[in-house]
Amino acid sequence: MGHKRVRPGERIAMVELMMEMNSDWCLFWPFAHADHMARRVCEAANGPKPSSDYECCHSCNNNLCINKNHLRWGTKKDNAGDRKKKRNHLTVTIKFK
Fold first, then answer.
1. Are 13 and 37 in contact (CB under 8 A)?
2. I want to staple 73 with a disulfide (CB 3.0 to 4.6 A). Which of 47, 48, 54, 55 is the partner?
3. Considering only CA atoms, which of 9, 4, 49, 8 is closest in space to residue 30?
4. CA–CA separation, 9 vs 96, rounded Å?
5. What pLDDT, in 10s, does the model give residues 43-82?
6. What does the alpha-carbon distance between residue 8 and residue 42 come to, in Å, rounded to a whole number?
7. Three-state SS at 54
8. Is 93 helix (H, G, I), strand (E, B) or coil?
9. SS3 assignment, position 69
10. Does 42 score more than 90 pLDDT?
């Protein structure tokens, strides 16, 4: 099963819809490239990315979410710190005998 194709204008319509919604729930982009849509919604909600050092951070730690209330610009360090605070990261310990 492949990804559905997005028709022209659907991305713009979805960004406009996300700007109107005010929810605490995660909202999902049903097609491929959710990370691209999250950046578009983040930009619409928070203005342009401050610099190339910034990325779209999700306060919900759900990379598929495009809820404007969950998105903000932050550095990779900010994003890693958020994941660590919420324990949404993988820690592997290897012990040798």
1. no
2. 54
3. 4
4. 55
5. 999 999 999 999 999 988 888 899 999 999 999 998 887 7
6. 20
7. strand
8. coil
9. helix
10. yes
Residue whose entry in the numeric block shows the structure tokens 């903000």:
72
Please check whether residue 66 is in contact with residue 11, taking contact to mean a CB–CB distance below 8 angstroms: no
Residue with tokens 């932050």: 74
pTM for the full predicted model: 0.72
Cα distance between residue 9 and residue 60, in whole Å: 27
Map tokens 């890693």 to a residue. 80
Distances in whole angstroms, Cα of residue 36 to Cα of each of 11, 56, 90: 10, 9, 24
Residue type, 78: D
Residues composing the chain = 97
